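Input/output pair, single chain:
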Amino acid sequence: MAACLPRGWLPSLLAVVLLSLRSPAMAPELVTSQDAALLEEVREDILCFSRSFEDLTCFWDEEEEASGMSHFYYWYSRDVPTACAVSTQRREAGGTRHVCAFPSQDVRLFTQLHVLVLDAATNQTRHQRELSVDVVRYSAVSPAGTPHGTAWDPGKQHTGDRDPPTHLSSSTHPPTAGGAAASPRAGQGLVQADTWVVLQHLRPGVRYHIQARTKPDGTSMDGVWGPWSQAVAAETPHSSGDIGLCCSTPDLQHMRCEWSWDPAEHSSSHELFYQETPRGAGIREDMWQRCQEASVGMQGAHTCTFQPSNDSAVAVLVNVTRPHVLPRLSYFKEPFWLHQAVLTEAPQLVEAAVAQGQLSLQWLPPLEELAEQLDYQVRYAAESSPGWKVLQVPRAARGEVLDLRPGARYRAQVRARAGGPRYQGSWSAWSKPVVVDASADAGWIIPSVTVLPLVFAGALLGLRCTFPSLYSSVKQRLWPPVPDLHRALGSFLHDGGKQGQAFYKQPPEEAVLPCLLEVLPAPPGALTPPTPEPAAGRPLPRAGAPSTDIANQSYLLVSGWEPRGPP
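Output:
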């Protein structure tokens, strides 16, 4: 093989090796195309930027090769100008880029810096600028805290007020402003951030690609927007309504969450996580807690009970893992308060009595603590009726009286709902029904006697207006016409009058007027008339013989007597 090599190859090889050792390694670009793109909006001939407030790089571009060399000088106020060793690099779009990298000891904050570019041949000023290092900074975002995988991970995510948020993390230091963009429906938002940012109003069940960038907020320091971070993918949780996720408290202490799943997927595993945010507290990490008291019922019904704080908003997340199926599904329920999710047990009916056509119901409140803030509804129906009559009962009532139709059997139920100024919730289940018989009694007779004549009169009036002939027939049957006495007895009265004139008309007896005088016999010895002498030829009456002569009897006249009865 050596015989095939040309003569003198060894000295040539040594020369190449020596030249390669003496030539310096190609230095990395001091200004990248990304750096230049971030400063495109800056309207200055000399562009400067700092990545960490401890470095400073300035550069300027020339479209064509300059006729001569240029010198770059910089100085701070009251300092002597210092020359910078300028390096040159080719631009991708053509032309030349001249770069000055400042030594770290010459980087000062909050101090006015002057930079100047002079033509080496003519000593004329070509470019100049005044700036401060603290207003030209930019930094890149490291998305180390973005959502893990394609589903939401409890303990690593934050929650928003209405819609499921996405958590982003950056490597900037305060004070910093951050921007984020998400797709689909790409958009940008400016938020104040430290090491996290929350994206709100995202659609549920959508896979988003997210990027972030930062810049100083301009209060104490300023700068330009840094580059966008690498895009990360995250899928927002599905809506809780997709699985019928409902949470409520029956006793103001425990929270009971229920959801349904396809019973055919019995091998899928379900986990419920909840997060509490105290009133007035900000969003914090590592607040997700796993619900331990979980159970599975019939027809794919899942239940989990936990005990949150009364003064905290609660957010709920359900993760469903299916074997051999990716990704994991998540369902998110927006934060809610314990006192806004009250669902009590059904009230207990303790009395149902029927009297005088009325049903009197009495019940006990399902939760005595909320007795004054519970609304009630009563429904009742006859067995022959297809529907229910629902009656709204005043708040905090414990009984109601219903009017029933006599002779029918009725069913009645009651339910409750928290509707006070503080506690709200949903209607409870209906109580166990009570069945009562409404027997006819005197209470229904009086209305019937009053109503029936009115109904009968109304029917006759309607019959008269609608069928006059039929009305006349009915009227004749019910009320036959009274015969005319003058016509029927006219001849009799006329003949009788003539015959009556022949008879003697005896005058009526005069009425006996009461007498105001009463004649009473005088008591013995009261009046003793003198004994008359017998007349000649007439004998005297014998002793003890009754006298027939009125003159021989004595009487008293008493005045003032009135009759005691009508004359």
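The first strand starts at residue 47 and ends at 49. The chain has six helices and 32 strands.
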